[in-house]
């Protein structure tokens, strides 16, 4: 078969797997959060709520598609698409196993980081096109926040890159065969911590979710969206979250490495498990804290996180230079 | 606003780390506690004895006659005036010719139960009367008697409530360590 | 005037600074009820606030004239529906004052018990909804909210076995109370109170040193002592600003002088100070509940028992004002009696109504997110604002 057809089919399969994974991760989050709050999550739809995500998806598909009269039609209608596409595109660069992966680019990490920050365009289009003060306010806050936190995100993601000397994701995983990067003294742990904090903030999760702030801005930039467009935005948000978890697992927790990982599927399973661990960590933080104000969020980023990740990056580079060059 | 470059940066950071750990520790402990959810309607929680639920009219236990004598005390005391009674005079005792109660406007304050001299009107230990048509909640006498037979009555009847408020004949003793809700009238 | 302002979307001032008029409420997840605040924003800062109330007006004062002294206590709980026992207590105290009824000792102790348990339940709800507003319905706020509601349910279960109702009790009547404690209730009450004390420790662990919480609440919404005195605040709001005044100690009613408890006072005047006051009030209320259970005397529970007719309670001509320390401040009922079974005039002094008057003084100058934190720490209940 021509290689183009092979890639197209792989891409299609991957897209469906990603969408399925994202919908079921919402169920995982809801049950986990519920148990932390002394209640049971979804329970009635299907055994122990297992069909709940499907019911949600069907509901959203059947809802009426409302477009506000004064909304900017083109911007409003295109925003969910512009938001979703980068969030799903980054999955193409993730290697789930040595042979399972769509496009293991040799600038993999750079591509991931660059494309994942394109979602901000879709976000702002949504806020502006809705012609709604609440949406606009939230979109302005979002732009502020995501731009501020993308820098520490990039710097903390660069720490493993400097340690390995390559932007290729499979090379980064192979370099961790001896020891995962998170186990490296000080640099590993602090780097992982900084990556987690930057992820939480770049994803607009509590305590940094001033963007949605249900009790003030009632769903933020998504407030005017309903039906399938809302579903696309939800999908994009959770896809981005999962992708960042996968990236964190790859960069710091060893990717697909684990007992029995020569078999590609077992490797992929390990990768999934580690990504879910990162995701659950982020969820645990989300359900434990109140949010802080937007000026405080920006203060944390510019005054605390950015200098910290810069210092960590310099320290890593210094240590690598001392060691005599990158490589394990 | 956090000012991390001020002196005491490390102590502030240490405090932040400790606080984060404590908060997340509380959430983690809760992960291990059993959920407090009651799987209604398969499982119903235990209602206490004095639960104020739907209203009903009762029959006398021995003679199987209606308890209501149509005295209209409940009608006069009801704050939102949802009870309408017509008295039917008869030889030995009076009856209620018609008794309507608009349950959709009822406050569930139990004042009607408190004033009833014959313990005719009581409240049940259930509130399960949801309906799609509000007219079904306009309870007439037959419906009220049917409700009285369908559900379990609450402990509180007119005489018991008035006895609880009247001066006691002997010292009230409280039984130790009883299960919640086994409310009995004050021991004699 | 306020409406025409709300209709304009953006108004450009001559300095080039944009002002946005935004409506917060009456349907809003954090409006604590039906409350409309018309905020004028300059960027993220609020420069003016115009509060509109009245969405929950249900003519309580007219009902006080239509219903008799026997009937109204069942509705009095609906003014402050979150802390119903103290609202009913205020009404029946006014009736007893004007009619010069004696209340038996056991009834007074039962009233104190009910009021303090109610204070615990009300503060549980306050903490839960405040954290919910600050932390989001999908986030840590919801976690604290669900924990607080879980504890509040325990207290409501106690009330349910006492009166039969969970939220609006009808527990008080002129002359005493309607219900007495059932068998085994005192033991259950002690267990519940012990459990709540432990859980309050957990809430403090989650929130007290938490930097996120502290940066949201410290220095936010500072009410100076002079402002508090000028506007007429009461309850935890006043005590958070340094005014050491509590009706339970200054003008003891219903045997409060028999109990030993501290009145927490903080001087900082910001949201964090009010939070500390209420958290300490939790523990003081638990102390009082234990003292009441230990010292509950025998005796009748009402001096006008066995209410049989609607006009049974009559008050001679006169007027009386009675004050009660509710969970939010001073609840006052003023009754003018004319000799019959109904009041000639009844006026309700709702503490939240007076407490809301402080908003135009403290909100301008803070950010939008602070508005939510301040509203939560003021803790209004709109049943008593609009009556």
Topology:
The complex is a heterotrimer of chains A (328), B (188) and C (387).
Chain A: H1 3-36, H2 52-62, H3 73-89, H4 108-116, H5 119-129, H6 133-164, H7 169-174, H8 187-202, H9 214-217, H10 228-252, H11 264-286, H12 294-323
Helix pairs in contact in A: 1-2, 1-10, 3-5, 3-10, 5-6, 6-8, 6-12, 8-10, 8-12, 10-11
Chain B: H1 9-32, E1 55-57, H2 73-77, E2 83-88, E3 95-102, H3 111-115, E4 121-123, E5 138-139, H4 141-150, H5 158-165
Antiparallel strand pairs in B: 1-4, 2-3, 3-5
Chain C: H1 2-7, E1 10-12, E2 18-24, E3 36-42, E4 45-52, H2 60-66, H3 73-76, H4 84-99, H5 105-135, H6 140-163, E5 172-173, E6 176-177, H7 185-207, H8 211-217, H9 225-231, H10 236-239, H11 247-250, H12 271-294, E7 318-325, E8 330-337, E9 343-349, H13 351-356, H14 359-362, H15 368-378, H16 382-386
Antiparallel strand pairs in C: 1-2, 2-3, 3-4, 5-6, 7-8, 8-9
Structure description:
Chain A has twelve helices and no strands. With 328 residues, chain A is an all-alpha fold. Chain A has one domain (66-323). The relative contact order of chain A is 0.15. The mean pLDDT of chain A is 84. Chain B is of the alpha+beta class and 188 residues long. The longest helix of chain B has 24 residues, at 9-32. Chain B is elongated and about 90 Å long. Chain C has helices at residues 2-7, 60-66, 73-76, 84-99, 105-135, 140-163, 185-207, 211-217, 225-231, 236-239, 247-250, 271-294, 351-356, 359-362, 368-378, 382-386; strands at 10-12, 18-24, 36-42, 45-52, 172-173, 176-177, 318-325, 330-337, 343-349. The longest helix of chain C has 31 residues, at 105-135. By secondary structure, chain C is an alpha+beta fold. Helices cover 47% and strands 13% of the residues of chain C. Chain C has two domains: 3-52, no CATH class; 60-386, Orthogonal Bundle (Cytochrome-c3 Hydrogenase, chain B), CATH 1.10.645. In chain C, the strands form three sheets. In chain C, strands 1-2-3-4 form a four-stranded antiparallel beta sheet. In chain C, strands 7-8-9 form a three-stranded antiparallel beta sheet. A two-stranded antiparallel sheet of chain C has the order 5-6. In chain C, a hairpin with a 2-residue loop joins strand 3 and strand 4 (45-52). Chains in contact: A-B, A-C, B-C. The interface between B and C is large, with 58 and 52 residues.
